[in-house]
């Protein structure tokens, strides 16, 4: 644990602050678990900011993505958390993925994609099915732009379909979710530390 690590959680709830958010709750739980492995974390609720549509690092007048992007580039671990709507990730999550697409054109001093050596965790909450499908989309997109995915790094909770109980309404976190948070966080910290010590080669 000698190597200091940082994490950024981007939550993609459709609810602006100060509304309670199941996505924020799960992201906070993951950040707390990462802290047990020496990872300092920060959380951004994307819907609170004016993230313009587009696939550039800066979409100009009023775009607040560049401030989030600086945090993304500064973090060793990205925690991307989305609610489930109609079996899909949220429109906010899709916009975040589209803005990350710009990083395909960005390289470091050695000519490598700028997001190489960074690790990603996916979090999904919803009272309907779709978690595995959403995790597949998030992980493929994040891997495309350079993130490495740890073993068992998708953390999800599916409530009973067509019911009104959300993750934030539970009296306690289900044991299996706790176990998955623990595993995903441990593996992410291990992998991020390994990549920081021994980066991917430039060629």
Automatic annotation (TrEMBL):
Gene3D superfamilies: 3.40.50.360. Pfam families: FMN_red. Residues 17-155 form the NADPH-dependent FMN reductase-like domain. This is NAD(P)H-dependent oxidoreductase.
């Amino acid at each position: 644990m000698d190597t200091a690590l940082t994490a950024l959680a981007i939550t993609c709830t459709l609810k602006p602050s100060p509304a309670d958010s199941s996505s924020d709750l799960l992201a906070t739980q993951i950040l707390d678990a990462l802290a047990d492995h020496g990872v300092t974390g920060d959380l951004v609720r994307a819907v609170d900011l004016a993230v313009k549509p587009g696939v550039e690092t800066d979409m100009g007048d009023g775009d607040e993505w560049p401030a989030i992007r600086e945090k993304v580039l500064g973090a060793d671990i990205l925690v991307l958390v989305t609610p489930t709507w109609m079996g899909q990730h949220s429109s906010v999550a899709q916009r975040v993925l589209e803005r990350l697409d710009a990083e395909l054109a960005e390289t470091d001093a050695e000519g490598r994609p700028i997001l190489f050596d960074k690790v990603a965790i996916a979090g999904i909450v919803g009272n309907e099915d779709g978690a595995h499908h959403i995790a597949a989309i998030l992980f493929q997109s994040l891997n495309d732009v350079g993130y490495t995915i740890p073993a068992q790094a998708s953390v999800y909770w599916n409530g009973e379909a067509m019911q009104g109980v959300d993750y934030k309404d539970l009296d306690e976190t289900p044991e299996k979710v706790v176990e998955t948070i623990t595993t995903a966080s441990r593996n992410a910290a291990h992998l991020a530390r390994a990549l920081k010590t021994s980066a991917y080669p430039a060629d």
